[in-house]
Amino acid sequence: MLPPSPIRSEVDVIIPCYNAESSLQRALNSVFSQTFRDFRVYAVDDGSTDGTRRVLGENKQFCTFVSQPNSGPAAARNRALRMSDSPFVAFLDADDEWKPQKLRQQIDVLKQDESLGLVCTTCDTCEDGWHSTVTKSNHRFPSAGRLFAHLARECFVYTPTVVARRRCLEVAGFFNESLAVSEDFNLWLRIAARWNIAVLPDTLAVRHKRANSISVTIPPESRLRHGIAALEHVRSTCSNLAEVESRALRHALADRYYFHGSYLLSTGANYAARLSLTSALRFRRLHWRALAKLALGFTPIRLSLPLKTRDDHSDTPDRSVSLHTARKTRDA
């Protein structure tokens, strides 16, 4: 295994680390095994209480790192971004790993097309020993170009697959540190609102899902609320969207408010549920599911229907949220 270039770097590899002692070396080895050699690793130990800092120290010859109090993945990535200065930036979480050809393929694409702000790929997901391949989307769309509307409808950009152009990150702004989850989805949308993006068909990364990851442990209501905040932030900062893009964003917000309202309704928080469902109708007047749930919001019965919510931390696909059993309750 050869070390990365000690002279200069064309790509900065950003790795936030939190209690990743068991997986961090695997992630670093996958970077050091890249066929593209012109890179430097910048890692931030985000308040780990295990041996994460020790692992980083053992790799200090090829990895620049600092430690900070636990502040979340957005703050850790931003800290690493401010430490680095290469023209291209690749993102890898300490749980995950890359295939050897990843950087070379993506850098070649970015150099060939100056209109691209970001290039991502498909990836494998490993959970409890099971592997599955995440395709770019359930919907058909071009593999490159103005893909904001498609991305707003369904997140197909997975963080460990991303290589971005630094100047695009600087113009769009770094990660939104107020978001506990969906901070990556929020940034990819802000980039896609200004530049073309590309999706390579090759599977060049592996995501390993841990039982104690933020996306798993964060309460459903908080995850849904941050998902709304992520899209609202895009709406407030991206003012030059085409009409088809604005409509896709409005519809995405309507769905997020609907999911949030439906979850609140299932817990008996009828008043708060009605507020969210009304917001869904504000963004999409003929959202029939929101209309139906809004009517139910005036009844004192909890629902026991299955609900799908989108978990966008590290761009994970939809997961089911367990709901409370139906019983009478007062209006929250």
Hey, roughly how much beta strand do the residues contain?
A: 15-25%
The number of helical segments is 12
* Distance between the amino and carboxyl termini: 59 Å
Give the domain tally: 2
Low-confidence stretches: 309-332
**Helix-and-strand structural type:** alpha/beta
- Radius of gyration, CA atoms, in whole angstroms: 21 Å
Label the CATH architecture of the largest domain.
Alpha-Beta Complex
Helix content range: 25-40%
Instruction: Kindly report the average pLDDT value.
Output: 87
Shape: globular
Q: What is the highest CATH level, the class of the largest domain? A: Alpha Beta
Give a quick rundown of the structure.
By secondary structure, this protein is α/β, with parallel strands linked by helices. It has 12 helices and 12 strands.
Descriptive report:
This protein has 332 residues and is α/β, with parallel strands linked by helices. It has two domains: 11-213, Spore Coat Polysaccharide Biosynthesis Protein SpsA, Chain A, CATH 3.90.550.10; 218-321, Serine Threonine Protein Phosphatase 5, Tetratricopeptide repeat. The protein contains twelve helices and twelve strands. Strands 1, 2, 3, 4, 5, 6, 7, 8, 9 and 10 form a ten-stranded mixed beta sheet that branches. Strands 11-12 form a two-stranded antiparallel ribbon. A hairpin with a 2-residue loop joins β6 (116-127) and β7. α9 runs antiparallel to α10. The longest helix has 24 residues, at 243-266. The N and C termini lie far apart (59 Å).
